[in-house]
Structure formats: C-alpha cells, structure tokens
Design goal:
The protein is 43% helix and 21% strand. With 197 residues, it is of the alpha/beta class.
C-alpha cells in the first residue's frame, strides 16, 4: 500500500466485509491474517489500528483487541512478578532475564491459555493481535500463531506485524521481524493486503 489512507481503507473494507468475517475464500485454512508494516511506521500503524477499532465499532463489528505487551504486563502483575522484574532487571544478565521471561510467559503453557480465557469471556467477530515487536525476543510470532491454531479458528485473527511476511518458492513463507530476523517460518497465514472482497 502506498500510503496510510490506502492502508486504512483497504483494511476497513476487508475487515468489515461479510466475506472476511465469515472466512470465505480461504479454503480449509486457519483464518489467520498478517498485516505487515515497515517498523519505522509503527506509530502510523498504531494510529491506523486505533481508527480501525473506532470505525469497526461504528459498523457494529466487535473486535477482541489483544496487545501482547499489555497482556504480558497483565499476566506478570497477576502473578506478582511485575514488581520483582522492574526492581531486579538490572541485576540479571540479559541471558538470565530472557530465560526467565521465556519460562514465565511460555506461549504454550501460559500466554495462549490466557488469550483463550479472554476469548471465552468476550463476544467478538474478529481478533486483533498487536505488540509483537514489543515482546520480542521472549515471545515469537510464529510460535504464538502455531499455538493459537486450535483455539482461534472460529473467527478471523489479524496480527499487526512490524516487518515483512514474505513468500518464495524456495523458502516458503517467513515472518521477518523488523525486516531483520527471517528465521520464523509460518505458512498458514494470509497477507491481509492480498485479500480482496
């Protein structure tokens, strides 16, 4: 997309369309969509997402909005870990801190069950996932999507992704976070900009 208005219009037209909401045109695939954007345009994309939420609400389309950074803080605060890590972060080596956060926020054992709980409590037509850049490297996009496949198949899920979602005949599909880290292979999502209604 050439500019923010084009992006916003495409996203709003697609997400508010019956074809998208009823998951038509994706075969038997999981209804996961990636909204890639240049990491330098993070603030622009946050503004687009905010306007999407407002406009979708006006169209009576309910969105479950999961910001991963806010979710991590919520989870850590609930368990009493947030204050501890705020006070002791500088005393831990980067490796120890990363290992502890990966254990504490394990995608399969803790994060996905937490998201599933939010899904069970909400009435929604589409789920947004944002903040993946803010929780790197202790949470990885491909691992989250792989673990959400079983529980997030009844509604479309859109992940706002700071980087590229690229496809090639040789390498398949990959999520290139910040346009630098290209080791996260994920094959089952659709690029939202390629989806037409």
């Amino acid at each position: 997309m050439d500019n923010n208005l084009d992006r916003f219009n495409h996203l709003l037209n697609v997400i508010s369309h019956d074809r998208f909401l009823s998951m038509q045109g994706i075969g038997n695939e999981v209804p996961f969509f990636i909204c890639p954007f240049n990491p330098k345009e993070t603030l622009d994309m946050e503004s687009i997402e905010k306007n999407l939420l407002k406009n979708l609400k006006q169209k009576n389309i309910s969105v479950l909005n999961i910001n991963l950074y806010d979710t991590v803080i919520e989870m850590m605060s609930k368990e009493g870990d947030w204050d501890y890590y705020n006070q002791n972060e500088s005393k831990l080596s980067k490796k120890d801190l990363l290992d502890e956060l990966r254990d504490l926020l394990d995608v399969e054992d803790y994060l996905v069950p937490h998201i599933k709980e939010k899904m069970n409590l909400a009435s929604f037509q589409v789920m947004f996932i944002s903040g993946i850049g803010q929780v790197f490297p202790y949470i990885r996009a491909h691992k989250l999507l792989n673990n959400l496949q079983k529980s997030a198949k009844n509604h479309p899920t859109l992940m706002f992704f700071p980087g590229e979602y690229s496809h090639s005949a040789a390498g398949g599909a990959s999520l290139n976070l910040f346009n630098k880290f290209s080791t996260d292979h994920y094959y089952r999502a659709f690029n939202i900009y390629d989806f037409q209604v």
